[in-house]
Each structure stands twice: as structure tokens, then as C-alpha cells.
What we know:
By secondary structure, the chain is an alpha+beta fold. It has 8 helices and 18 strands. The strands form 5 sheets. Strands 5-13-14-9-8-6-7 form a 7-stranded mixed sheet. A hairpin with a 2-residue loop joins strand 17 and strand 18. Helix 2 (82-92) packs across helix 3 (106-113). The longest helix has 17 residues, at 191-207. The radius of gyration is 28 Å and the shape is extended.
Amino acid sequence: MLNERDLKNLTPYLNDVVNIEVKGRGRKGREVLLEYSSGKKLVGNLDHPSFRPVELKGLTSIASYFARGKYGSNSWRGNCSGLLIKDLLEHYKPDTFGDLAVGSGTSIDVATDLGYTKSNTVFSDLNPKYGGVDISGNDLDFPLMDFIFFHPPYFVFPGSSMPVYSGKGADGKGMWGDKINPHDGSRIQTEAEFKRWFDACNANLYKLLKKGGRLAILMGDSRFRGQYYSMFKNMDIFGRLEQVIIKQQHNCLTDSVKYSGKFIPLEHEYLVIIKKDGPFIVPIHHVQTLQRDIRQSEKATWANVIAMLLEDRGGKMEKGELICEMERHPKAKNNQHIYAKLRQEIQVHPKMFGRQGDLIFLKTPV
């Protein structure tokens, strides 16, 4: 809450401000952040006797860009703030820079503003306007680069309102092209196929890095009608993971909506920095999604099996019925004394299982 003194102190700095944030109230005072349409940020202590904000520069592990600056097109759905790309380039200062999924051209605008030229940049996209190159395919023909920025399409659940890109003329949902491009990640409708596409893009971009080069990937999670997909959790990582930055999202369609119940709106993205340490050895972190049926698992403990059987029957079963079910489990082939095992598990796990006569039941927290 700003008081009259605060407003007096802030007035000289309010011209062209697009965002004001105040946090903290204690011995150190309240910190105020002023963000301008240009992307410039000032920070200062509102409770200091002589209030004088200073410019905030550089990256931290938490990034927030309320303003988008003068870069790219604000009508392009899914576009990120060019100020993020600018901070990355000013932080790492690469000699050569590339973006092979330029979207509306945000990274091109940033690079031009920072003095990069055609001699030290590479820009492309699946959109024919920027070359029509499919980076998920093999045998890409680009020079090796020091720094590559990749802001891929996010996984779009069928029926959701997430942005899609190709096929503007096909169904009216896309942003370019008369037909849906078969290599457009935003048009992939199964999680497994999307993972294969995303991993192929990341592997190909890593190959285009020079030794010591970096790949910066900005990605987000998707949710629709109880389904959730995390690009970061499911991605394979080629190279050494050097940094993870959490970026706050602004100006989302749901920003003005108040939610109740268990729904938590998504307001974050991940910026992952991957480094290429050498030309020959590629560290690979491979993610594989598996399903295990505990009814067929010999590695499950007897406590797990008993709890599963009880839960499947509403939390309680007669002793005889439970023993019959236990005898059908693969673990029983090496144990001929199932009743003794059941009695032992009830004794060893008194907080998990209870017994009243011949009724065995799952306990609840007290």
C-alpha cells in the first residue's frame, strides 16, 4: 500500500512506468520496483530517508518482464519479451547468435538493436517467410554458433486454446500458411510424439553449437481439463545443464480470472541454459516414461500389495478374501505362508493397517 509520502517520492520517476511492485516490510524497509515500457528497471528502498532508486541490471534465477520493449509483435500469440533475449545476449556476450524458430522476429529485432549483423547471426523458422526449415529433421545446413535461443511451440492438448502456428488457412487457428505443416510442434496431439519432436530439435540445435557454446531453451507447461504436461520434466538434455531460470509470465488470458478450489493457474516458464563443453563427448540425460502394475510386481513390498488390495476394495476386506488375493500375487510363489505374512505385516505397520476380528482395514490419520 502506497502512502502520501511514497507517492511524493515516486512522482519524479513515474513517467512511462508500466509496472510497480512493492515487497517487504521490516527492518530493511520496503523495496519498490519500477518497470518502464522500454524494459528499464529501477529499484529502491521506499522507507529510506533519501529515496533514490538505482537501475536494476542483469539476470537472476528468477526473471520477470512485465514490459516487452520494442521488439517483436505483441499480436503474435506465445511471443516472449525481447528483453529476456537482450539480457541473455548482454550477459553471455556471444560472438555469434542464432534463433532457428524466430516466430514473429523478436530475436532479429533484439540482435539488430545490439549491433549484430548478418555476418554473425543465423535466423530461420518453419514458416516459409524465414526459410521454412524443419529443425526436427536431419542434416541441417547452418554454421556453428556460440549462442542459440530456442522458444519452441508448447504442447497443445486437443481442444485447448493454446496457440498453434501453421495452418491459418486450414482451420483458422494458425498464424501462417494455408496448410498445417506436418513438422509443426504445436500441431502434434500426442505427448509421446511431441517428446520425440522436441528431443530431436534440441539434439539438432546442440550439434550446431561451437565448443563452449550455449543453447538457451524457453519452455512452459501445458494443462487442459485435468491433464498436465511438463516440457522440462519430459525433455532429454543433450549437453551439460548449466542454469535453470524461472520466468514469470505476464499478460496471460487468465490473468484477470479469479479461481477457486484446487485449480492453480500457470504463471511460469523455464529458461534452461545448456552448455557444450566439447565436440566429441555428449552428456545425455534421457527421460523415459514407464508404467508399472503393482499387481504384477515382485519388487513391491508386501505392505504395498496389501494396501493396494485394501484400497481397491474400499479400504477394508475380510481376512480370508484378502489372503486369497495375496496368494494370486507373483510374490506368493516364493512364500507359502501367506497368513503368517499378513499377520506379520499388520504387526510391523500398525499405523497403516488395523484389524477388528476377521476384518482387515486401512487406517486413517488421527
